[in-house]
């Protein structure tokens, strides 16, 4: 945790970067936090390494991504440059939001039902929560077999569709971002990502 307080100096060479805490993504409350797992998101033209983190990590995973679609902002910026390309392969969905304090309770009440749906969604390979703070600055990362599986969950599951419909009217977010990425490479221990598919984990 002390390293996280001074971690930004390691991001000076990237266009955009964040060091983040993680959780299960089931409630987005303080009890959801996983103090054993930390994440970094970087946007750069060249591979980014953090040897000082690798040296103390028991396990690690790295996912190299190509942004396909991106809507919204993160810390007042549009960090990703989407290619618009379509892919039939594995994809990652990233959602990130800064909650309005006056609307947070309504949002948290809506989360558990959606979390149950995503846990049982066909094609889901992995998922976890992430955040810049334990409360109010949160997001999710999910890995899917294909764009078709991700789309089917997003628009056909009733609880998730209801949350999408409520978002503009309830005004939960002061800032929000959604992005979809093609997976170019995935290395390391997949269980770090909360991998669900045992067959693929053991390959």
UniProtKB/TrEMBL annotation:
Record key words, sorted: Monooxygenase, Oxidoreductase
Organism: Actinoplanes xinjiangensis
GO molecular function: monooxygenase activity
Source species, domain of life: Bacteria
InterPro entries for this protein: CrtA-like (IPR049574)
Entry protein name: Spheroidene monooxygenase
């Amino acid at each position: 945790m002390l390293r996280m307080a001074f971690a930004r100096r390691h991001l000076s060479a990237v266009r955009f970067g964040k060091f983040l805490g993680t959780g299960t993504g089931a409630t987005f409350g303080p009890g959801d936090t996983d103090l054993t797992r930390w994440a970094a998101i970087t946007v750069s033209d060249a591979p980014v390494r953090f040897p000082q983190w690798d040296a103390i990590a028991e396990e690690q995973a790295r996912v190299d991504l190509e942004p396909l679609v991106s809507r919204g902002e993160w810390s007042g910026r549009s960090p990703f440059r989407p290619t618009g390309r379509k892919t039939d392969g594995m994809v990652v969905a990233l959602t990130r939001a800064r909650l309005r304090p006056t609307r947070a309770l309504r949002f948290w009440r809506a989360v558990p039902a959606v979390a149950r749906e995503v846990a049982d969604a066909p094609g889901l390979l992995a998922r976890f929560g992430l955040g810049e703070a334990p409360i109010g600055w949160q997001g999710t990362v999910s890995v899917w077999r294909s764009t078709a599986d991700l789309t089917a969950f997003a628009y056909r599951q009733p609880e998730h569709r209801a949350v999408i419909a409520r978002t503009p009217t309830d005004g939960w977010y002061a800032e929000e971002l959604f992005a979809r990425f093609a997976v170019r490479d995935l290395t390391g221990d997949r269980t770090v990502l909360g991998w669900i598919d045992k067959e693929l984990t053991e390959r």
